[in-house]
Amino acid sequence: MRKSKMKVLWFALFCLILAACSSEGSSNEADDAIDADEVSEDAIKVGALLPYSGVYASLGEHLTKGMELYFDEVDWEVNGKEIVLLKEDTEADPQNSLRRARRLIDQYEVDILTGPVSTAVAYALRDEVDSNQVPFLVSHAGGDDLTRDMRSDYIWRSSFSSWQIGHSLGEWAYENVGEKIYVAAADYAFGHEVAAAFMTAFEEAGGEIIGEVYPPLGNNDYASHLTQINSSDADAVYAFFAGSDAARFVQQYDEYGLKDEIPLIGAGWLVGEDVRPAQGDSPEGAIVSIFWDYNLDTPENIAFVEAYEAKYDERPSIESLEGYDAARIIVEALESIEGDTSDPDQIVEAISQVEIDSPRGHIRFDQDTHHIIQNMYITETVIEDGQTENYVIDSVEEVIDPGE
Amino acid sequence: MDIFGVVIVNGLSYGLLLFIITCGLSLVFGIMGVLNLAHGSMYMLAAYMAYTITTVFAPNFWVALLVAPILVGIIAFVLEIVLLRPTYHLGHLSQVLLTFGLAYIFHDLAHWIWGSNVLSLNVPEVLSGSVSLFGQTFPLYRISLIGFGILLAILLWLLQDKTRWGAIIRAGLTDKEMVSGLGINIKLVFTAVFILGGILAGIGGVVAAPILGLFPGMEFEILILALVVLVIGGLGSIAGTFVASILVGLVEAFSSFYFPQISLFVIFALMALILIVRPNGLLGKKVSG
Questions:
Q1: How far apart are CA B48 and CA A180, in angstroms?
Q2: Is residue A234 within 8 Å of residue A211, measured between CB atoms?
Q3: Which one of A58, A140, A356, B8 is most buried, by most CB atoms within 10 A?
């Protein structure tokens, strides 16, 4: 009796770990992709490869909402041709995404692809897109290599790179925050890339990194790491965490009494729109660098925020902005070639020439790296009317990824 | 030396949090032989319910701590009567599959009701301060978790070892037919144990929410840790779970202090090591046949 119980326990644990490794959450197959037969012959087909289930589900939803908001503004039309958005769920699973990308390319014959959220997914899709010559506008995934060693003629990125995020705060931190910094980042490729870019810029400016710690992704408890940081003589902590990790880290940073002693700086996701409600007053005083902020005081941004809130009755997140911009770049590119999607090279060429005043500021593409050139904003979190808000306190203009 | 003390306090508070979350799972498994893979889901449901209670109905942590576990207890009651009871004669595997399926259903349900944003429950005001120990600030809430965990362990131990009810449960575990023969309704006992397991999962969810946050997938994160605790502790019911939770908490605290990159690996390595030395877990009883 007991022996068989123990066996069941092992078996279940084994299955669960396997399940957790392959993909988290439900295997939601319910994509609402439109039937290929219903799409009219000359409609422009945009394929969105985004996570609608699993850990990044909320990011995928926000990107989609942003895209749909912009497509609404142009009535889902370019030069009289209808725009159709075909959505496929990538989760955060590279293998699964590849199958779904093939379906979009072979079965639906999409004209342009956009997405994904996970960099691992983006890397997995790279060769497929390149060999099939499908224009691919990367609207979130930030891994450096996508616009460096792995760059492709057909891939352009409108979001950001790890380097842009990390590097932008390096010099600023040395001049405005302190000379000795402790670095804490989530232990996965993007966390390491952001941390490395920050450290390079900070050390070049003359600063000293006095410690680094990389807790695993999805870490429950930062208590021990915080203890370690507290016993160092750091002038500040540079942190990169996102989602539930960011919520926990910033909250625990406050609970363990570090907030009042060591300033917290980092990458924008640390105090993003999606996690601040869960963080309470903890993020007060945090300084981060990011390429868009809710309170950015430009006419384009005010209009975007108003339209988004009117349509969805919630605040846009940075992913909503990414989706909105991606949709706009697609539409502007197609307009410039009068909706003629017969030649993918022409579409790619049109994308590369797009230059717009986005809610995040002026953006254009670097013709060498295919990466976006944009402003980076330094924001500080303050408490206003009982809740936290981020405000832009400085900006770094036209940040160009070096591409190597 | 100070830093050593700090890590121990961190480890203890995390370990006892794990105990509060895991003890219900262990109780149900030890007594009923049902490995409830929906335990994490009950934990998650209670946390989300507590969030709704404090934001919509009454901004009071204690009300949530009382109401949410009871609601989850009711869900457990329905599940046991309707779904679980017909599977008892089918063997362990069918219950594993059933409860795992339920976990996915609850996952989608929670996603549908509460969305996918990260949410958080506020720490009750009385416990929102901090205390100074070993020259380091500790959140009062964490320290009180240590006390609450120990209290819960003592209560469960008393219930199991010192009450008539506990005696019936233990007897039912060894020899179902005999207990039934003595005129005790064993079905009722099982239902009661499963409800208790649900309530304990619920308490775990509410007390963990202010620390671990609420987000889709939180239940699977915890379920894996809970199963690790169960494997390490063995089937010695509450005592085994208690020892294993504290051990995992301390190992986690020390490994993430000294080698942060591999802290998760260290826990699994510990599990493997213990299984090699004691295949039935630390306090697991001897296997006979």
A1: 41
A2: yes
A3: A140
Six-digit token string for B219: 């239940």
As a whole number of angstroms, the distance between CA B40 and CA B283 comes to: 23
Summarize the confidence of residues A156-168 as an average pLDDT: 95
CA distance B66 to chain A (A): 22
Residue B177 pLDDT > 60, yes or no? yes
What would the DSSP string read from start to end of A54-95? STTHHHHHHHHHHHHHHHHHTTTEETTEEEEEEEEE-TT-HH
Residue B237 contacts A where some CB pair is shorter than 8 Å: no
What is the C-alpha separation between B214 and B45, in angstroms, rounded?
Answer: 10
User: Among A397, A370, A385, A391, which Cα is nearest to A148's?
Assistant: A370
Contact assignment for A8 to B280 by CB distance below 8 Å = no
pLDDT digits (tens, 9 = 90+) for A227-263: 889 888 999 999 999 988 999 999 999 988 899 999 9
Q: Cβ separation of B14 and A8 shorter than 8 Å?
A: no
**Tokens 């989760």 label which residue?**
A91
Residue with tokens 């589900």: A57
Name the band, by pLDDT with cuts 50, 70 and 90, for residue B288.
very low
Contact A6 B279 (CB under 8 A): yes
Task: Find, among B119, B222, B217, B224, the residue nearest to A24 by Cα.
Answer: B217
Tell if the CB–CB gap between B216 and A55 is shorter than 8 Å.
Answer: yes
- What does residue A398 show for φ and ψ, rounded to 5 degrees? 45, 60
CA pair distance A256, B1, nearest whole angstrom: 19
Task: Specify which residues A45 forms β-bridges with.
Answer: A84
Give the integer Cα–Cα distance in Å for B88 and B73.
20
A 14-43 residues with CB below 8 A of B? 15-17, 19-20, 24-26, 28
Q: Which residues contact A264 (CB under 8 A, 6 or more apart)?
A: A236, A237, A239, A250, A253, A258, A270, A283, A285, A286, A287
Q: In terms of CA atoms, which chain A residue is nearest residue B268?
A: A17
- Report the candidate in B42, B10, B275, B221 with the shortest Cα–Cα distance to residue A222: B10
A378 neighbors A288 (Cβ within 8 angstroms): yes
Residue listed under structure tokens 């959220």: A117
B104 and chain A in contact, CB less than 8 A: yes
Q: Which chain A residues have a beta carbon less than 8 Å from that of B137?
A: 256-257
The pLDDT value recorded for residue A3 is 58
Six-digit token string for B71: 């609601």
pTM of the model: 0.87
Across B112-140, average pLDDT: 84
CB-based contact B29 A5, cutoff 8 Å? yes
Distances (CA, A) of B217 to A92, A119, A141, B38: 13, 20, 21, 13
Q: Mind telling me how many Å the CA of A292 is from chain B's nearest CA? A: 19
